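Annotated sample (chain length 572).
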Amino acid sequence: MEKSWEILKPNPEAVRRIINATHVHPVVASILVNRGIQEGEDAVHFLSPALNRLRTPFSMADMTKAVHRIALALDKKENILIFGDYDVDGITATACLYEFFKFLGADVFCHIPHRSEEGYGFQAHHVHHCLVPKKIGLLITADCGSGSHDAVRKANASGIDVIVTDHHQVSSDLPEALAVINPNRKDCPSGLGHLSGVGVVYFLIIALRKHLREKGVWKGRTEPNLKRFSDLVALGTIADMVPLIHENRILSKIGLEIIRSGRRKGLRALAESSGTPIGSIDTEDIAFRLSPRLNAAGRIGHADAAFHLLIDNDLDSAREKAVLLGKLNSRRQNLEKELLDEIDQYVRKFPRMLRNRTLVMSGKGWHEGVLGIVASKLVEKYYRPTILISLKDGIGKGSARSIPGLDLCRTLDSCRNTLERFGGHIMAAGLKIRSDNIQAFADDFEKAVARSTRPEDFIPKITIDCKLQLENISSELLDSLDAVKPYGTGNPAPLFMADDVHIVSSKIVGEKHRRMVLSQKPGEGKQAKEAIQFNINPNLAMKERFARIAYRLSWNRWEGRKNIQLIVEEAQ
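Output written by the structure step:
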């Protein structure tokens, strides 16, 4: 699919201000301006993230009520249950709260629902199945609960207080919980709506530690260093693809340092099993190697397997759990491929489907655990909002994925009359629907998307940070770019452009990838650079010259040596 190219033009004055304040490479200064940083002081903070720059957790609505109620539960030695979500964000949020409460010596239990048997989130049936038998006095949700109105009412009626910690978009009606800590509730003034679910939990822990300090709880005992939990926060934050800006950048950068130390046995075992050197893990490793294995537990089996791996203090035991997650991930990959092939065949058979701005499909027997991943791949391929629905006994459970520029939750809200329930984020959501409402919903969704979009929204776009000719690429530049990391949503790896690029040599590897040596001066190897292009366009495979390329920079490490390597993302 042809893409439009947008080349950013940073304000030269802002670039100069940042260079004067930080003495960074001019290319790095340009990238910072492209990321919305205009002043020298802001650049200093961006380049040197520190925990003491986090905003106060007490700026979040209901935070004070929550910490007072938790402190009371600790005083009274009440049984506390943490109710988590089954994705990596929810699992890490649950583990973070669990470890903090265990440090305090609290009587704490955890429950993460089984995706296919229990469904998403805290539901009314959980009260008598999970809470009452354990004589729970206080329930704390982790990365869920903002839409659990019936369940919270039932818990209240059973004498159980509920504290919701969540970050998903919410309607104006909040559940009748004792506290709802969600920076995305409309009346929360904190400005922390970018936090992940585990990020919200981390802020609760910061507030609780401070409150317990004021109560004198830490006198005569060691006060916990909350940096020890930042590895979990980084893992959940990166996996949930929230913007790596502000607090998320601070927590991810510091958390990555803790992960690389190998302190957490479960993550060390997981890195080993995925063939990832623990000492150099980055956001890409988490997103594409570690997170899929952790998520596979909740998608294919039970998320408890991932939770227990993260809290395991025995390396041998953790290695056994990591092997299990690897097997679940392999099964997930097979299920994903089967469903993707089935849908691709259907679309090829009925190509008129692609006349619509949306793709809504349903099927019996589709595994719920892979719907979201397959929907994301279909968005990449066909570039339109996509919803996949698995049908069973007249009920459909679906996963939705969007394109940039379309608020998925707001669009689903306009179709709420045909849905049983829905929730999520701007770019991703889940839903429940009766099978006989699917066609009406698909029609409503198509109309809602048509109202909210323009034809140009359906042309994928690549954004170039700056033009960088090959002769200007140096080791010093690559080292300087490290300061911009960690990369992720909201802070993508810089993308550069070079024009009139000649292919000095080329070799196909793995059938659909190509290793090349590129130069902008034919026959002159001095400025030539190694490059690789993944999933090449067959029409370009035999080209000897590109009019222009869009590329990222990386080190190619092999047998103790490292060379500059261009990763060619697009070529024309």
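Annotation: The chain has a mean pLDDT of 94.
Annotation: The domain at 57-223 is CATH 3.90.1640.30 (inorganic pyrophosphatase (n-terminal core)).
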